[in-house]
């Protein structure tokens, strides 16, 4: 035990004594490892930011049908229960799903035609950017609609629905409280998000029927439930989008999703990972070879000294640690230096791109775990690289080397 | 095999009269029928028919270079594996009989290394110091390996050898003579029972050589150390009370192999 401890000490003394070679070896390692860390950091930073944006943006979760179809209430109850579905709500005929909005309290009254979009509890779009209407008399406006009407949250907007029945023009109005305004990135068209009841009543009124709920006049609506021509559907996660798309397409529907954009990010991730792996493998092989040759050269130069250690009475199983200790020291210092260089680069890169990213997003970032993995791998590789040198050390016969000059 | 070679050139039959009585001191080395050959284009082999070295004895292996002195020293230091052995026993510092022949057969190098570290000190002709260690650490090396305190032993020897002001220096900063003194201190620091020295003063000037050899022998005497030294200058050690081991050389006319025999 004392002998092993002494050899480790000797190895470290020699390591310090040969400062120049030591510094070169440490910098050589850092020169390979630091760019790899930066590359990996940029790769994972960019990909994670892109994935984060995808995940956090409900629009990417939307699965929307193209054109209109016939979807029964049974269909809604079946599809709505799928584990991949986060939110599903029927949509009425688009031709009837609109309303004229105006601000009656404003003297410069401006009338705006908006699309009516059904919403309810669990609507990811409104949960992220707005507020779900509490009742049938609340409305959430898109940014453009609110701007054109010049309205603030809490104000009352009046909606008008018209019909012509047997050549006679009729209309009803309803006062809606503005519950929230969506930002422009959430929805770009002029639209009002309201409860499905209001949409159904609007559609019925246009068809000449009355609405008990809103006290609108007309014929009694037909009994029973009817099919819907469309729906709004949101997947639970971006990974569920393509699953739902495939499922609905297999039902013969034509579907629009952002699955392609999601797939682009995934394939970007795969390509980046592959490129990183290729570079890493080449670098690791190069480093492994240079490290192994360095250690071997050092051992050859030190043959006589190691032989003398043997002559003094240190046994082979102690002396083989001489190159291994130095290799491990190099890998530790090299990884440390590479980490410092990486952290500086990370700071610079993230500052450089600060304008393009929002708070909490990074262009370059790796976790402590990744640095630990790099560290453990480097130590492991260095031990492997010193293996042949240790084998050479074991073959040293003191009687053959102690008289070398 | 060369025992029967009556063409052997007897280099010297003289045995030191000052040699201690062989019957009184315990044995340290007991060798018989030990051979080592170096098969090369110019073959060389060494035979030690019988060699007994006692505790506290001073033994000089005398002969010109190439006569097999270093080979015998390395055999005794247990760093060179003999080819044939009838008997090779080493009695360690704590009086344990180590069957060196058996340990070599079993390739138990660790056992030999352990015995070497505890019981033997070795001084080479030049250097042999580790350049990356200070003089202090070089001297203390065996003590570190044995896990023993070094400070007092190192200081004492340094004073005795006149190198105490160099303790913090590195070997590169010392003269050849000073380095040799450091090497002697290192061989002695752990108080071994045997000190082996291979031409320890050959690289020094005559005045320095006499002085260093004198101090070396004096320390060995004080500590009752078995002192085995190889030298080509019998005159330098004759006065110091060494027993002489002589080497006889003989060239085999058939293959040109030089056969050496150590006796005494």
Description:
The complex is a heterodimer of chains A (405) and B (264). Chain A contains 14 helices and 10 strands. Chain A has helices at 2-17, 19-56, 73-80, 124-129, 143-149, 196-206, 238-250, 259-301, 303-312, 316-319, 321-352, 368-385, 387-394, 398-401; strands at 62-65, 85-91, 98-102, 111-119, 138-141, 156-165, 168-181, 191-195, 230-235, 255-256. Chain A has a 6-stranded mixed beta barrel with strand order 3-4-8-5-7-6. Chain A has a 4-stranded antiparallel sheet with strand order 2-9-1-10. Chain A starts with a helix and ends with a helix. In chain A, 35% of the residues are buried. Chain B has a single domain (3-263), classed as P-loop containing nucleotide triphosphate hydrolases (Rossmann fold, 3-Layer(aba) Sandwich), CATH 3.40.50.300. Chain B has a 10-stranded mixed sheet, sandwiched between helices. In chain B, helix 5 (151-161) crosses helix 6 (176-188). The longest helix of chain B has 17 residues, at 206-222. Chain B is globular. Residues 1-22 of chain B have low confidence and may be disordered. Chain A binds chain B through residues 1-3, 5-6, 9-10, 13-14, 16-18, 305, 308-317, 397-399, 402-403, 405, and chain B through 70, 74, 77, 79-80, 109-110, 113-118, 120, 122, 124-126, 128, 130-133, 137, 141-142, 144-147, 186, 198.
């Amino acid at each position: 035990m004392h002998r092993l401890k002494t050899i480790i000490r000797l190895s470290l003394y020699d390591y310090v004594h040969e400062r120049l070679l030591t510094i070169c070896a440490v910098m050589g390692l850092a020169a390979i490892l630091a760019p790899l860390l930066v590359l990996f950091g940029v790769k994972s930073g960019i990909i994670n930011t892109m994935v984060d944006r995808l995940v956090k943006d409900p629009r990417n979760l939307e699965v929307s049908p193209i054109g209109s179809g016939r979807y029964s209430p049974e269909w809604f109850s079946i599809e709505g229960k799928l584990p991949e579905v986060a939110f599903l709500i029927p949509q009425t005929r688009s031709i009837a799903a609109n309303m004229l909005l105006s601000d009656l309290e404003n003297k410069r009254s401006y009338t705006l035609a908006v699309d009516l979009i059904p919403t309810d509890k669990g609507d990811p779009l409104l949960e992220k950017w707005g507020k779900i209407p509490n009742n049938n008399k609340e409305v959430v406006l898109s940014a453009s609609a609110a701007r054109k009407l010049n309205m603030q949250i809490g104000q009352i907007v009046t909606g008008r629905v018209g019909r012509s029945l047997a050549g006679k023009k009729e209309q009803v109005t309803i006062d809606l409280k503005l519950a929230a305004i969506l930002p422009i990135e959430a929805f770009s068209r002029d639209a009002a998000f309201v409860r499905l009841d209001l949409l159904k009543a609007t559609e019925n009124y246009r068809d000449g029927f009355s609405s008990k709920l809103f006290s609108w006049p007309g014929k009694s609506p037909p009994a029973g439930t009817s099919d819907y021509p469309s729906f709004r559907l949101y997947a639970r996660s971006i990974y569920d989008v393509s699953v739902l798309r495939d499922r609905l397409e297999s039902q013969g529907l034509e579907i629009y999703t952002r699955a392609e954009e999601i797939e682009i990010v995934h394939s970007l991730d795969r390509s980046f990972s592959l490129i990183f792996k290729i570079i890493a493998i080449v670098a690791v092989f190069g480093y492994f070879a240079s490290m192994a040759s360095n250690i071997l050269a050092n051992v050859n130069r030190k043959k006589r000294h190691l032989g003398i250690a043997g002559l003094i009475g240190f046994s082979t199983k102690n002396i083989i640690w001489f190159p291994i200790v130095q290799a491990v020291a190099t890998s530790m210092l090299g990884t440390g230096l590479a980490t410092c260089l990486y952290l500086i680069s990370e700071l610079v890169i993230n500052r450089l791109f600060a304008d393009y990213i929002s708070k909490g997003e990074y262009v370059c970032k790796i976790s402590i775990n990744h640095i630990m993995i790099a560290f453990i791998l480097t130590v492991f590789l260095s031990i492997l690289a010193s293996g042949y040198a240790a084998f050479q050390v074991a073959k040293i016969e003191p009687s053959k080397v102690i008289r070398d000059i | 095999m060369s025992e029967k070679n009556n063409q052997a050139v007897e280099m010297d039959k003289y045995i030191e009269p000052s040699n201690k009585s062989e019957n009184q001191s315990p044995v340290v080395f007991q060798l018989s029928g030990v051979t080592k050959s170096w098969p090369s284009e110019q073959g060389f082999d060494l035979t030690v028919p019988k060699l007994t070295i006692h505790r506290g004895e001073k033994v000089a292996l005398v002969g010109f270079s190439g006569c097999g002195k270093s080979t015998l020293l390395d055999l005794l230091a247990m760093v060179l594996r003999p080819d044939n052995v009838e008997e090779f026993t080493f009695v360690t510092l704590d009086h344990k009989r180590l069957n060196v022949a058996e340990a070599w057969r079993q390739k138990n190098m660790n056992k030999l290394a352990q015995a070497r570290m505890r019981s033997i000190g070795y001084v080479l002709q030049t250097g042999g110091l580790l350049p990356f260690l200070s003089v202090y650490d070089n001297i203390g090396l065996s003590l570190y390996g044995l896990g023993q305190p070094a400070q007092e032993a190192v200081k004492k020897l340094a004073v005795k050898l006149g190198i105490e002001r160099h303790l913090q220096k590195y070997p590169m900063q010392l003269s050849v003579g000073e380095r040799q003194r450091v090497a002697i201190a290192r061989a002695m620091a752990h108080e071994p029972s045997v000190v082996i020295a291979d031409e320890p003063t050959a690289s020094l000037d005559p005045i320095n050589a006499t002085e260093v050899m004198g101090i070396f022998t004096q320390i060995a005497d004080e500590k009752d150390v078995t002192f085995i030294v190889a030298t080509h200058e019998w005159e330098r050690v004759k006065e110091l009370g060494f027993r002489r081991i002589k080497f006889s050389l003989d060239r085999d006319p058939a293959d040109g192999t030089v056969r050496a025999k150590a006796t005494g």
